[in-house]
Amino acid sequence: MPRLLTFGDSNTHGTPPIVTPGLYQRFDADTRWPTLARAALGEGWTLAEEGLPGRTAQFVDPVMGAHMDGRLGLRMALESHGPLDVMTLMLGTNDTKTRFGATPEMITAGIAGLLDIALGPLMQTRHGGFRVLLICPPAVKEQGPIASEFIGAAAKSRALPALYAALAEAHGVAFLDAGRVIETSEQDGIHYGPAEHRRLGEAVAQVLATLA
């Protein structure tokens, strides 16, 4: 029975496009892309969802807290669940926030650190070996109620697919450019609507079916 871990931020958690900042909402299991991907893979698959709104690949967030650093979260997730067969990794959107001052290369370096954790002998041995699918998020649109947090993020995010693809090749992991499948909402420029979740879930399932 293959077991899947989906590790990411609010778009893995299932946060809808934001209308009112600070109001917590989450799509149901019939809408979120991780649960749709699991359903598309078939009843033999199980799923552990590890999406945290605000999570970054590498930064302690001065506003949202130290636990937003994905390096801490990934270790906790990999030691909480298992044994795993496949893990998806989709982060980088929050790393483009203005307050972090990160270049595309710095953001990619953060993803590299997460891959080093997941692919290192400690975690691979713990789970008996598991495969990784690296997903590059679609480009940010600097608009909507939280646009002030993402000044300059659009250009940074558009540079990430090529960098992530090269990183995936170097590490021998699977790669999916989500920006070729979906785009962020016009409402807030960050999150995905229900139709995008469905398309992304189907695309992820197609890749994962070749890995397990």
UniProtKB/TrEMBL annotation:
<dbReference type="Pfam" id="PF13472">
    <property type="entry name" value="Lipase_GDSL_2"/>
</dbReference>
<dbReference type="InterPro" id="IPR036514">
    <property type="entry name" value="SGNH_hydro_sf"/>
</dbReference>
<feature type="domain" description="SGNH hydrolase-type esterase">
    <location>
        <begin position="7"/>
        <end position="198"/>
    </location>
</feature>
<dbReference type="GO" id="GO:0016788">
    <property type="term" value="F:hydrolase activity, acting on ester bonds"/>
</dbReference>
<protein>
    <submittedName>
        <fullName>Lipolytic enzyme, G-D-S-L</fullName>
    </submittedName>
</protein>
<dbReference type="InterPro" id="IPR013830">
    <property type="entry name" value="SGNH_hydro"/>
</dbReference>
